[in-house]
Amino acid sequence: MHKVIAIFNQAGGVCKTTLAMNLGYHLALRGHRVLLVDIDPQASLTTFMGLEPHELEQTIASAILQEDTALPIHRDLHKMSLVPANITLSAAELQLASVIARELRLKDALEPETDHYDFILIDCPPSLGVLSILALTASTHVLIPIQTHFKAFKGTELLLDTIKKVRKHLNRTLAIAGIVPTIFNNASQDKAILEALREQLASIATIYAPIPRATAFADAAMSRQPLAVYAPKHPSLLILDEIAKGMEAL
Ligand SMILES: Nc1ncnc2c1ncn2[C@@H]1O[C@H](COP(=O)(O)OP(=O)(O)O)[C@@H](O)[C@H]1O
Ligand SMILES: [Mg+2]
């Protein structure tokens, strides 16, 4: 059975895109067929994966706006496939307002491909808007990166509430795949936040080991490579591999 995992948090800069690309790569290394889907108009995932968003004519926007348009899939990028995005997606988001059953558009667009992949990872935009709802509706699971920062709890209730609403109205079986504390500084404040995250959220989902703050993640993204390619001995790779194993066990 294939798994479709939305990587979701309405906050920006919490490692969603970094996690999508690197988790995807670790799943691919473990022998799985992986499709990454960029549904953020900022198109960071598309950029991190080595494409130039503004040069693309066919993106996820075309597939969700026009029924019967095939998904534009770029294959063999770091052992994975990618459906890219670009800024036209923000116009598409507005156009979707008048589309019937718009929440199903991403699910329907992915449908013909689901048998060809073991994992489909959807990189959500930093918002609770319609694009994130489309992603959560299309997914079997949601994986939540949360930065171990004092602001960590600020949006968490809203985030969980959104998941609850999607479950109630659009996708009854949506499951939480886990919570990944990210950009963790080994300092007392971050440790306290991590402890609080564990106390308050362990009853909701698995809480993975934190991904440390490391400039290598940004450097790898700048060179358009997964961390495992850019820095094959980086200690954070063990954590990514653990998360990949967790996704296999879902
Ligand atoms: N563990 C980390 N340590 C330091 N910087 C990171 C880490 N993970 C990601 N980054 C950098 O932080 C920025 C935001 O990460 P990104 O994955 O784009 O977040 P989001 O998709 O949630 O907005 C990027 O420049 C990225 O390279
Ligand atoms: Mg992002």
Report on this model:
The protein is an alpha/beta fold and 250 residues long. It has a single domain (3-248), classed as P-loop containing nucleotide triphosphate hydrolases (Rossmann fold). 40% of the residues lie in helices and 15% in strands. A 7-stranded mixed sheet has the order 3-4-2-5-1-6-7, with helices on both faces. Helix 1 (16-29) crosses helix 11 (236-248). The longest helix has 14 residues, at 16-29. It is globular and about 50 Å long. The N and C termini lie close together (10 Å). The relative contact order is 0.19. Bound molecules: adenosine-5'-diphosphate and magnesium ion. Adenosine-5'-diphosphate (ADP) binds next to helix 1 and helix 9.
Please give a quick description of this structure.
The chain is of the alpha/beta class and 250 residues long. The protein has eleven helices and seven strands. The chain has helices at residues 16-29, 44-48, 60-65, 88-95, 105-110, 130-138, 156-169, 188-201, 215-222, 227-230, 236-248; strands spanning 3-7, 34-38, 74-77, 80-83, 119-123, 141-147, 175-182.
Separate helix tally: 11
Count of β-strands: 7
Determine the fraction of residues in helical runs and give it as a percent range: 40-55%
Q: In total, how many domains does the architecture comprise?
A: 1
Order of helices and strands: EHEHHEEHHEHEHEHHHH
For the largest beta-sheet, the strand count, sense and barrel status come to:
7 strands, mixed
Any ligands, ions or cofactors bound here, and which? adenosine-5'-diphosphate, magnesium ion
Radius of gyration: 17 Å
Q: CATH superfamily, called what?
A: P-loop containing nucleotide triphosphate hydrolases
3D shape: globular
Q: Architecture, according to CATH? A: 3-Layer(aba) Sandwich
The structural class is alpha/beta
Proportion of residues in β-strands:
15-25%
What is the C-level CATH assignment?
Alpha Beta
Instruction: Give the end-to-end Cα distance, rounded to a whole number of Å.
Output: 10 Å
pLDDT average, as an integer? Answer: 96
Report the uncertain regions.
none
CATH T-level topology: Rossmann fold
Strands ordered across the widest β-sheet: 3-4-2-5-1-6-7
